[in-house]
Amino acid sequence: MTQSSNEMWTVTIVVPEGSSLDEAGETYDLEVGTDETILATARSAGVWLPADCQQGWCTTCAARLVDGDVVHPNARRYYDEDDEAGYILPCTAKPRTDTTIVVDQHDDFLEFRAANDRPPGNSKLNG
Amino acid sequence: MSEEKSHATGTVEPGDTSKRVGMEVIRERGLDPEELREKLIDAIGAEFTTYYYYTNLRMHLAGEEDYKEITEDARLEDRAHFELVVPRIYELEGSLPNDIRDFADRASCPDAEVPTPMDDSGGFDTSELEVEDILEVLLEAERCAIRTWSEICDMTRGADPRTYDMAQRILNEEMDHEAWFIELLSKERDDEINPAGHFARGEPGDAPYSTNNRFNDSA
Question: How remote is the C-alpha of B196 from its chain's centroid?
Answer without folding.
Answer: 20
